[in-house]
Specification:
- The two termini are about 15 Å apart.
- The strands form 3 sheets. A 7-stranded parallel beta sheet has the order 5-6-7-8-9-10-11. Strands 3-2-1-13 form a 4-stranded antiparallel beta sheet, sandwiched between helices. Strands 4-12 form a two-stranded antiparallel ribbon.
- It is built from 13 helices and 13 strands.
- Helix 9 packs parallel to helix 10.
- Strand 10, helix 10 and strand 11 form a beta-alpha-beta unit.
- The protein is globular.
- It is α/β, with parallel strands linked by helices and about 375 residues long.
- Bound molecules: N-succinyl methionine and magnesium ion (MG).
- N-succinyl methionine binds next to strand 1.
């Protein structure tokens, strides 16, 4: 396959409500969209999940764009004719840049699968036609606002609630949600690295709430620290930020640092690496679930395809379009009885709505 043109669009989409995590508050989503056109005229789309500022991970929108333009696309152009399965190997000399690499690989894979008439779900090995969905709830302005937000999601049918936590917003809000909604609610928490090895006693207090898991409590490099914590508390520890490849996943499982894994394809360099992590975890008896990066419909479609693989046994952060945006870049994904349908068309199975993308575009660049 030969790529004739890469198009990059930066769009700004307002969020329906601010999303506060331990590392900051977002009120709108700046998204870098990637469109590739093959020499035969087939188009493929992806979105780069990097945020505007490097707070979740070292990557950020402007940096990803520069990395793609300056290093990754020239490396691909040098080879000229390749398959999506070759992209990771061609880009391997350039260190890190998982999100930038994932965006390119996904857009190229989308074009390839559209040309071959195969859906991404089928290509990745999906076994479900709809996936069970959870929702991630930001740090609220008050306990009342928290209960109101959680109630509205439960009323919409979400099957699992994830509360963002940080020092000072942990034991009390979790206790209130557990007491308000009862013992049967599937409940988990995500700290985005906000705690340290000195906080183990504090985190142990959460054991009384029978949480599904605690996600990434301490810093991403401290995998051994997570193993120590996992021995100290009864709540299962789930890594997110730390898992940057299938190799790291294998090691983290082996040392007992993670008994459940949050898979975000863009954090690990793409969907092909994500399937490897799924397989490593499955072989070790470790369940996985699909994370989210406030994707628009283009990114969500691909995540749903991955979440349809058999070892994705826990509800993911694959929420409906309405949880994030009033207007999505694609036809909205809707929650029906706690599930979202997996797209079945060729490639990612959805197309951006031209008028919407144009309306929210702030800049466009092309590379031949
Ligand atoms: O897409 O629903 C979503 C967001 C889910 O909480 C979510 N993502 O650490 O898992 C995580 C965060 C990372 C992004 S926060 C802006
Ligand atoms: Mg997380």
């Amino acid at each position: 396959m030969k790529i004739a043109e890469y198009e990059f669009r930066i769009i700004h989409l307002p969020l329906v409500r601010p999303f506060r995590t331990s590392f900051g508050t977002q009120t709108s989503r700046e998204v870098l969209m990637v469109k590739v056109t093959t020499a035969e005229g087939v188009v493929g789309w992806a979105e780069c999940v990097a945020m505007s500022v490097p707070l979740y991970s070292p990557e950020y929108v402007a940096g990803c764009l520069e990395t793609m333009q300056k290093f990754l696309i020239p490396a691909l152009n040098k080879i000229g004719d390749f398959r999506a399965e070759d992209v990771a190997t061609i880009l391997k000399p350039y260190l890190g840049a998982q999100m930038a690499k994932a965006a390119l690989e996904t857009a190229i894979l989308d074009a390839q699968l559209r040309a071959d008439g195969i859906s991404l779900a089928k290509y990745l090995g999906a076994t479900k036609n709809k996936v069970e969905c959870g929702v991630s709830v930001g740090i609220a302005s008050s306990m009342g606002a928290l209960i109101e937000e959680v109630s509205s999601y439960i009323d919409s049918g979400y099957r699992r609630i994830k509360l963002k936590i940080e020092p000072g917003w942990d034991y009390e809000p979790v206790k209130l949600v557990r007491e308000t909604f009862g013992p049967d609610l599937l409940l988990q928490v995500d700290a985005n690295t906000a705690y340290t090895r000195d906080d183990f006693d504090l985190l142990k207090r959460l054991d009384e709430f029978n949480l599904l898991l605690i996600e990434q409590p301490i810093e991403e490099e401290d995998i051994l620290g997570h193993a120590r914590l996992a021995e100290y508390i009864t709540t299962p520890v789930c890594l997110d930020e730390s898992i940057v490849s299938a190799g790291v996943a294998r090691d983290a499982i082996e040392i007992g640092a993670t008994s459940i894994i949050n898979i975000k394809p863009a954090r690990v360099g793409g969907y092909i690496e994500a399937v490897k992590i799924h397989n490593v975890a499955q072989a070790a008896g470790i369940p996985v679930w699909c994370g989210g990066m406030l994707e628009t419909g283009i990114g969500r479609a691909a995540n749903l395809a991955l979440a349809a693989l058999p070892n994705f046994t826990l509800p993911g952060d694959t929420s409906a379009s309405a949880r994030y945006f009033e207007t999505d870049t694609t036809e909205p994904f809707v929650l029906v009885d706690g599930h979202i349908d997996v797209p079945t068309g060729p490639g990612i199975g959805v197309d951006p709505i031209r008028e919407v993308v144009d309306r929210f575009t702030v800049s466009t660049e092309w590379v031949k």
